[in-house]
Amino acid sequence: MNSISEIDWKVKSKVVNTLLENRNKLILVPLDSGLEAEVTKVCLEESCFVLKVWNRSSKPNIEQQFKLLKTLYDEGLPVSQPYGWGLDKEANSVLLMSFNGAAVTKINESKLISLAKILTSIHDFPLNCLEDTLFNKHDFINYFYSEIEEHEDIHLLIKQLVDISHMKQDKLIHGDYNLGNILEIEGRYTIIDWTNGQLGDPRYDIAWSIVLISIYVSQRYGDVYRSAFLSRYTKEEIELFEAIACLRWVLLNRIAVLPKGKETIARVQNILKNNVHLNETLI
Fold it and tell me: Transferase among the record's keywords (predicted)?
């Protein structure tokens, strides 16, 4: 766990200075961390913040992420407020942000519609508000499908589906919009973890979130959530991009240890069976 005073702050706000001045009064509480970084809750009296340290294999550009978050926050999108970034003693990138509650766990139809509207607002964000240096655009398959060359069945199919999708990379996308990256406190939502924020196709962003809700919550709620986007996109478009997104889950399941409940695989099999672009032999 990093000490605030041991960080080489490249950009710091008054909040960082206040924490440094009161370093002996800080309360540090480890939070659930993902595969990429260590996360700590930092509290000074009644004010709390989040310190994220990328001390694992993932090494994203945190200076860029800081600038993106600041722009989105200043323009009114529901993201964490960034207070500073720097490097720890091992040269791992560090980001200090506002504390915005806990991940969404309880779901209902009204909440799903609200979350769909937030995702749509991200896709509608005017790109002229962003610096040119924040316009990340990646090769879609290489970026989202790590080690796919070793899985020929998925590789051939994903190339076919991407070819017919007429994919566009002209909107801001989150890249990993899921309930674990949506915080809730007193009825307010905050979208976190912008490591995969980039120029992309909103249909993929939407499809990935639909697939994860269908797998980890229920097919019924996946259907409810999907319906919120059908005024913008056709059922056929969404189904195609859900196939593309589901293939990513299948690939990740082969190369990593994903969270699974007793119904997880059955739900994935159901998606594979009912999507016209997929088949059950993939899992």
Answer: yes
| Domain end residue (candidates: 78, 98, 118) | 98
In tens, the pLDDT along 115-130 reads 999 999 999 999 999 9
At residue 282, φ and ψ (nearest 5 deg) are: -75, -15
Our count of domains for the chain comes to 2
Residue 135 has pLDDT above 80, yes or no: no
- Listing DSSP states for 115-173 in one string gives HHHHHHHHHT--GGGS-GGG-----HHHHHSTTGGG-HHHHHHHHHHHHHHT----EEE
Containing H/E element for 183? strand 182-185
* Domain final residue, candidates 98, 121, 156: 98
| Contacts for 266 with CB less than 8 Å, ≥ 6 apart | none
In terms of domains, do 213 and 273 share one?
A: yes
Q: Is the pLDDT of residue 172 over 70?
A: yes
